[in-house]
Amino acid sequence: MNRNDLRRVDLNLLVIFEALMFERNLTRVAEKLFMGQPAVSAALARLRDLFDDPLLLRNGRGMEPTARALDILKEIQPALDTISGAVSRAKDFDPSTSTDVFRIGLSDDAEFGLLPPLLTQLREEAPGIIVVVRRANYLLLPALLASGEISVGVSYTTDLPANAKRKKLRDIGCKVLRGDARPGPLTLDEYCARPHAMVSFSGDLSGNIDLDLAKVGRARKVVLAVPQFNGLRALLAGTELIATVPDYAACALVEGCALRADDPPFPINEAELSMVWSGVHDNDPAERWLRARISQFMSQALDVAP
């Protein structure tokens, strides 16, 4: 196909094709791209004609891409990234007048403990922007970045897409939350004897804290796992339950209530809270402004009331 032939190719079709490859569901693509499902079905028919391939085939209750579709995705995605980056860099960015939509992925601890001051500053500088927050963790971040559903994420991270970039924001220190009225910090024996609550996105009853406890020959008993941090305040108040949480989440949880936060009675290896983003957006003026604000506010040390 020469450049003149490219005039008959609708770039919107390629954007829909990319979304179809990731979502593999017409309804979800319609919701993601703010289209009607009949329009997505029509676009898929045009794509099948353009590439002379079924692209998506029914497999039980779902849909699976053909081998040819996956090959096309490998070729098209870098080109779409390049086009998107070139268009973004061509725009000036003025936060005071911007109406851009920013899509951010945040782990639950970052959303609960660190988003409020960040959002306040963003709204002061850029009152017209829209911020869309997606729940993300180290398992979800790679796919959200690769699909373009978020442009930047903040979480503990492991494996990332090949074109992703990462910046360490801070070490994740820990505090022990408690809602009882007894004075003084917990000893290691008391810590291990008390029932524990933990925040677990996957529903697991153990985590890195248990590995650190095992290094000193001890263990704890988790009796409650919840999917997010905002419920801990009510769950711990006036009970023997304790929870070991990131220091910035503890800072938000103890504010204005009877909970208090102690230092843990044993060494805990600190993980890293990182900001990650797609290389496509590396030089985008708007995204650079957003990342600068995230770095500024999420890197700050927080004072946690004892």
TrEMBL record:
Keywords: DNA-binding, Transcription, Transcription regulation. InterPro entries: LysR-type_TF, LysR_HTH_N, LysR_subst-bd, WH-like_DNA-bd_sf, WH_DNA-bd_sf. Coiled coil: none annotated. The keyword Transcription regulation applies. The keyword DNA-binding applies. GO terms for molecular function: DNA binding; DNA-binding transcription factor activity. SUPFAM superfamilies: Periplasmic binding protein-like II, Winged helix' DNA-binding domain. Residues 9-66 form the HTH lysR-type domain. Belongs to the LysR transcriptional regulatory family. This is LysR family transcriptional regulator. The lineage of its organism: Bacteria, Pseudomonadati, Pseudomonadota, Gammaproteobacteria, Pseudomonadales.
